[in-house]
Amino acid sequence: MQIGNYKTFETERLLIRPTALEDANFIFKLLNSPKWLQFIGDRKIKSIKDAENYISTRMHPQLQKMGFSNYTILRKSDFTKIGTCGLYKREGLKDVDLGFAFLPEFEKMGYAFEATSELKKAAKKEFGISRLCAITLEENTGSRKLLGRLGFNFREKTHLPGDPTELMLFYIEL
C-alpha cells in the first residue's frame, strides 16, 4: 500500500502509514503520555498547533528527503490510532534508528512487536538499509526487551549531541 509517493505498510492487525497533519490530536496525546515524557522526553508539545508544527517541521522534512520517517499505527479493526514507529536519521548516530511508542492502553498486546517487525523488514526491502540501530534509556526495560525480541544486540552506552542523558545503543544487521 502507498500514500502519495510514500510507502505504507500493513500487518495482520495494523496499518502503518506516514504521520500526517491530520494526526496532530493523536501526536499531542502520545507525546504527552507518561511513558513518553519519562523515557523519551518532553518535546514541549503543549497544544494541537504545537503538534502540527512538530509534524511539519520534524517529521515531514525527513520523509521528503529520505522516503521514511515517523509512521502512525492504526488498528485495522476500528482504525484507532494506537502508536507510532519510525526509521529516523538522528544527529550523532551513524545508522538509521528504529523507534517506537504506544499509548498506554495499547501496550502489552503485541502491537509494538508486530509494527516494528514490519518496519524492520521494510527498512531492508523497501529502503535498502543494511543495519539499524536503536537507543533507549537503561531503565526502559520494556523497550530493551522488545529490542531483544527483534534481534537487536547491545553495543555500548552513548549520548546524542547536546544531551547529557546516557542511552543504551543497540544494533542489528539486516
Automatic annotation (TrEMBL):
SUPFAM superfamilies: Acyl-CoA N-acyltransferases (Nat)
One GO molecular-function entry: acyltransferase activity, transferring groups other than amino-acyl groups
Residue intervals of the N-acetyltransferase domain: 14-173
A Pfam family the protein falls into: Acetyltransf_3
PANTHER family: GNAT FAMILY, PUTATIVE (AFU_ORTHOLOGUE AFUA_3G00765)-RELATED-RELATED, N-ACETYLTRANSFERASE DOMAIN-CONTAINING PROTEIN
The name this protein goes by in its record: GNAT family N-acetyltransferase
Organism field: Christiangramia sediminis
